[in-house]
Amino acid sequence: MFTKWIYRYEQTLTLVAFIAIVAGILIRIFLKDIAVIGDALLIFATAIAMLPIGLRAIQALRFKMFSIELLISIAVIGALFIGEFIEAAVVTFLFLFGSYLEKKTLERTRRSIQSLTELSPEEALIKQADGSRTLVSIEEVSRGDRIILTAGSRVPVDGHIIEGEGTFNEASITGESVPLTKCQQDTLYSSTILESGYVEMIADKIGEDTAFAKIIDLIEEAQETKSNTERFLDRFAKWYTPAVIVLAAIVGLITWNLHLAITFLVIACPGALIIGAPVSSVAGIGNGAKHGALIKGSDIMETLAHIDVMVFDKTGTLTKGQPELLRVQTYNNPPHDLLGLIGTLEQTSEHHLAHAITSYAEQHHVLTDYVVESTTPIKGKGIAGQVDHQQLIVGNRALMQDHHIDISQAEQDALYEEQTGHTLVFAAINGKLAAVLSIKDEVREDAKQAIDLMKQHGVKRTIMLTGDNAHTARVIAEQLDIDEVEAGLLPEDKTAYVKQLQNQGYHVAMAGDGINDAPAIATADIGLAMGDGGTDISMETADIVLMADRLKQYAHAFLLAKATHRNIKQNIWIAMLTVFALLIGVLLGGVNLAIGMFIHEASVLVVIFNAMRLIKFKIKGEDLNETTQTTIRNPDMPYLYQEN
After folding, report:
1. What is the 3 state secondary structure string of 280-312?
2. Which CATH class for the 324-440 domain?
């Protein structure tokens, strides 16, 4: 009970100590006849200020830890013993006041993270079955509830629109402040804001299952992790503090100067050294979260700063992951319902190219009531199956070769399509080539600028790994100035390639969509996933998640990691140089106990303020918010369905 009271009123105790110190010093200077009262006030101030300091020292000793508070306690007791009442009182006050300032400034470093948690919605407007509206707390929302959103409303849970249209600000999720227009069937995320319009949505994910809740959990977990530097400093401090006590005792025994010994204790306090790395890491992680890059810990931040090889998947990472079917070239007199048959089979696949084919088939109403009699997905190659008594094989060249399908008659057309940067899907019916489907996926607008920036800041090699054909991959690589291309790879091939790079001594980062590339992402030193608003697989697999699917966030995270690493080094040097300078000052007789304490606390604040610069970190020299469109060199060809 007493301990809680002390900590609760610590600021009040600090103020009382300050008043007593000022009164005591004034009495000693101007009322020397009653100087004893001044001394009593100084001793009282020391005792008051020592309450929280001494309690922390005792609590640390219970866990066999030598804390900074223990050093201060020993020094203050020594100062009182030799009659240095002013120095004893001033040291305790400065320590408490410095701790108060540290707490307040550290709160600012965490404010960018705390501001995110404050965006969490608290209420939802539910539309009942009879049409009435009920305002309920967020805890009362259930899956399947129909929720009404009006202009200015904050989306309470994750779900999808079933009625209406509106413009949404998704900055809390993606870091992007540009509003997005959404309509029926579009996904909505908790904490985002409906800026204009009227929308009714169905709740799909609630509570801790929402993307926003997962983001907050990730950030909170990230703050608790420690980098190698932080762990080293913790181990160092564990031995450093008792070593200081021993050295101070040796100084006292050699010089028989107790004042010098206790001054040594104060100036050697490792406060700035211990706090320098964690405060920089917290500020860096907060900045990343604010810009839509979730970095899952200080250890990941430290590793990212040393990355020298960037590996990228193509589809969904360097490209937008929204492929469109542009052209179908037919061969060998295929059935008139060819696209319907292919589209029906592809409906059983989750591959992004399958989605492009089925979307086109749906738009042109060629899907009818075909019966899928069998289906066999073939990893990294395509799909085979029987639809309406027709045997279909749909996939890449390798799949055609595996099934001995002759595609020689399509080689010239295929080469032309690939040289324009298109991805090809071959389709065979009953053992004969029936069609070649040309699919385009646009390059991300900010990809080249992001890659160029990372290459300018320490990335030695950029590599594209893709399951696509070599011609298409090279076209994309040339547009983005990517150094190397490996095409026609299966997921296990990508993993093996990443391991090969690591065995060569490189520090490798792998960026992918978090699904097909999950093994390679998990293998790399740093795994990065395009978050797509926070999909489960990307959050679980990767070390870094880009919430807006923008590569500019990757560049920001990489440069932020380097800035954070530099900042930690700066803080360590500030702390070490301060202690070194104070030691010289003590040996030369120019630093007493109070001055040493003042400079020590000042160095801690300098370290914190230096780390706080990371809160406002942004990429210099390049404005990635204004990206130029990167397009395929050849103009898009209109859809053609023609016989060869």
Report:
1. HHHHHHHHHHHCCEEECCHHHHHHHCCCCEEEE
2. alpha beta
